[in-house]
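Lab notebook, design round three. We kept the backbone fixed and only want residue identities now. Task for the bench partner: fill in a sequence for the structure below.
Input structure tokens:
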């Protein structure tokens, strides 16, 4: 080792003796403990046998740990505060790695640091931050890492900064030269920090406003196929049941043709599938509920790239010609019921605009077997849903009812005393509970004779299926694997292997009822017809940052959202979801075709305007007793145009005999807080909040939320005089608008 005299060290601010090998071991241990514990936990939980790709991940973690150790080493010159600052930084380092663990475990992708803004969201705080999968492991690892850092930096030793830092950088350079494995998930091959840098430097996939304004239909109207159902008897009523996160992989009769296995099985739902028409190649078009629901109800592709959801985009804009509207015009009563709070994602507005006469959510349920921050459990929901069906069936007019469960949304809502073969708290446990509830629900309707004259469609909003540790391309495929079951009065039974997708459902319902002539402009294929040729089908995954398209010739093109990496695989008829074989690079034409379709999916129905008003909520709303928080409104996934000036105004009065409400409000941009507020409102008081958000460039994933964290009193009502976002796109010559708080007051 090169000798440097003490005077030279003192000149550099070092007065302590050099660190020994033992000191370095302790310091490096504090930096490396969390990354390696998290990686080991992921591999163990997924029962993955480590392969070459995992060695790359280990080296990536080593690089990140060395660079972090270099940062800790820099603290050694702060003799007074080093140990405490180092321990604190190590705690943060451990927590972000465990947050990454939770994200990978549930969504299959590395977490984005911008998600940190969610800790201000009560639902996220209660449901995720305060409910880790391995709390003991989290606490132990964090505490030990912090202790090691405190010991290392409290030993009054000098740690040169550059040796570990340069070693970490050298490892990163080496990793950049090594190709990634196409057979393993990205998270198995990268570290948390460098993945954030890569994402930050990647160009936006959504393009500018001009790109979004130009649109073309992604599907054509095709009712040329031969009918596979009898003309009579025709259904009098229509029941659409949307199950949270269920995949075709969970039904043995659907997964067997694909040679696929799954740790989650729903035998009761599978028996229901076998008694009707079931579809083994049914595409769920996106990985978010509001995007899947939009496709199912409105017969249009959601945005295939990460951008403002169309459901959010259209909330508050006026009537929308979706399936409920068509059913209402045909003489059907239209009802929507979901287990979750309606204001979240502004469904209270959208569902009315889409044509539902009656829109019901979490506050409709007076009792429950179990309730959490997302709403009531699945058994409660479907028991009450059956009651609603029987109520509607007694009315003279035909009815159209849509149900949406939420119990299998992470964190799972299952009564703690529910027993099955699966481990309590696991996904298999939650889906077993849903399976029981669905089986009881259909059996009750069958016994009551409802199925004799009702078309029942059972499907999912999205697919949670995945192969642990498999490639991103493979998981994009499985995440797009939905399912559809159709029970008809004519009692046809068949396994259909043709490819259909969520946007096909509206035209299919009209086709089965003989009402398709009412909507000559609607696109898609009817699931009740057999077709001789294939067609283009698309889906995306905002969590993986990928998009896919299937050609009529069954060529499957998979791209990253920036279209920098596109691959193609040939699939077989009826076996779309068999494990992928070799992927070849996509041609320029194949890439351009998918990119064009993906960017067309971003288009708004209406042309972009210089001014847009979003009404977050209006009228009077009762304060209800629920477990956890109560969402008052949850405007999510909004997009602010470049050079825009957005004014947020909120005026609300608390009415009632006596009592108070604790509010929390935030405005997040890219999940990072811009404006955060919380306070208590007494009966008779009025909250007035007004602020401006200015931006020089396009801002995506904007959220504006208000929720109740606590309250006291009875018969409390919130009276909203105003709750709006006024978004104005300013001329290019205008000076940039700064974010300001103009008004904040509570008055009587």
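Proposed sequence:
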């Amino acid at each position: 080792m090169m000798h440097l005299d003490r005077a030279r060290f003192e000149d550099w601010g070092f007065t302590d003796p050099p660190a020994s090998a033992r000191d370095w071991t302790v310091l490096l241990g504090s930096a490396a403990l969390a990354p390696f514990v998290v990686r080991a936990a992921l591999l163990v939980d997924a029962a993955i046998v480590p392969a070459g790709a995992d060695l790359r991940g280990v080296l990536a973690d080593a690089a990140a740990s060395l660079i972090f150790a270099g940062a800790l080493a820099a603290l050694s010159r702060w003799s007074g505060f080093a140990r405490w600052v180092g321990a604190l930084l190590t705690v943060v380092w451990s927590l972000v790695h465990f947050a990454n663990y939770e994200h990978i475990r549930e969504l299959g992708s590395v977490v984005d640091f911008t998600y940190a803004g969610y800790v201000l969201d009560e639902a996220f705080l209660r449901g995720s931050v305060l409910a880790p999968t391995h709390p003991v492991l989290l606490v132990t690892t964090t505490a030990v890492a912090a202790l090691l850092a405190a010991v290392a930096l409290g030993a009054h030793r000098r740690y040169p900064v550059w040796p570990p830092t340069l070693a970490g950088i050298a490892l990163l350079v080496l990793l950049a030269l090594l190709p990634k494995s196409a057979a393993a998930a990205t998270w198995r091959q990268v570290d948390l920090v460098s993945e954030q840098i890569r994402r930050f430097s990647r160009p936006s996939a959504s393009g500018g406003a001009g790109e979004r304004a130009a649109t073309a239909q992604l599907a054509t109207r095709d009712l040329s196929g031969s009918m596979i159902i009898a003309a009579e008897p025709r259904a009098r009523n229509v029941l659409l049941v949307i199950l949270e996160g269920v995949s075709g992989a969970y039904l043995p009769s659907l997964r067997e043709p694909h040679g696929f296995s799954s740790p989650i099985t729903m035998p009761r739902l599978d028996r229901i599938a076998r008694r009707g028409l079931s579809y083994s190649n049914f595409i769920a078009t996106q990985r978010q509920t509001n995007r899947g629901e939009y496709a199912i109800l409105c017969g249009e592709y959601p945005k295939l790239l990460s951008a403002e959801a169309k459901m959010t985009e259209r909330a508050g804009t006026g009537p929308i010609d979706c399936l409920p509207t068509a059913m209402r015009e045909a003489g059907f009563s239209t009802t929507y019921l979901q287990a979750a709070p309606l204001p979240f994602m502004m469904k209270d507005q959208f569902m009315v605009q889409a044509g539902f006469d009656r829109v019901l959510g979490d506050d409709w349920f007076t009792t429950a077997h179990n309730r959490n921050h997302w709403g009531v459990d699945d058994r409660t929901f479907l028991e009450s849903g059956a009651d609603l069906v029987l109520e509607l069936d007694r009315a003279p007019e035909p009815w159209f009812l849509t149900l949406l469960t939420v119990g299998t949304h992470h964190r799972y809502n299952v009564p703690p005393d529910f027993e099955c073969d699966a481990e309590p708290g696991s996904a298999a446990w939650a889906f077993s509970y849903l399976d029981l509830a669905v089986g009881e629900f259909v059996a009750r309707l069958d016994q009551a004779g409802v199925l004799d004259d009702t078309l029942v469609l059972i499907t999912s909003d999205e697919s949670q299926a995945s192969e642990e540790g498999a490639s991103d391309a493979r998981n994009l495929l499985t995440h797009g694997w939905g399912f559809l079951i159709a029970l008809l009065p004519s009692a046809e039974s068949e396994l259909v292997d043709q490819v259909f997708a969520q946007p096909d459902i509206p035209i299919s319902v009209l086709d089965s009822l003989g009402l398709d002539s009412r909507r000559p402009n609607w696109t898609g294929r009817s699931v009740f017809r057999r077709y001789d040729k294939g067609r283009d089908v698309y889906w995306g995954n905002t969590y993986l940052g990928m998009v896919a398209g299937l050609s009529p010739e069954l060529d499957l093109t998979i791209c990253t959202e920036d279209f920098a990496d596109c691959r193609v695989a040939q699939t077989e008829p009826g076996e779309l979801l068999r494990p992928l074989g070799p992927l070849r690079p996509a041609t320029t034409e194949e890439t351009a075709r998918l990119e064009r379709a993906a960017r067309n999916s971003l288009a708004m129905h209406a042309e972009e305007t210089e001014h847009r008003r979003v009404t977050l909520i209006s009228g009077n709303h009762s304060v209800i007793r629920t477990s956890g928080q109560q969402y008052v409104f949850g405007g999510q996934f909004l997009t602010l145009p470049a050079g825009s000036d957005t004014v947020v105004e909120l005026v609300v009065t608390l009415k009632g005999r006596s009592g108070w409400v604790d509010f929390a409000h935030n405005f997040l941009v890219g999940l990072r807080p811009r404006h955060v507020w919380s306070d208590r409102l007494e009966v008779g008081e009025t909250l007035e909040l007004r602020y401006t958000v200015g931006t020089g460039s396009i801002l995506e994933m904007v959220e504006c939320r208000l929720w109740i964290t606590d309250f006291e009193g009875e018969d409390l009502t919130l009276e909203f005089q105003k709750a709006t976002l006024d978004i104005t796109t300013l001329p290019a010559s205008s000076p940039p608008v700064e974010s300001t708080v103009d008004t904040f007051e509570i008055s009587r």
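Keep this in mind before ordering anything: Residues 1-14, 205-215 have pLDDT under 50 and may be disordered.
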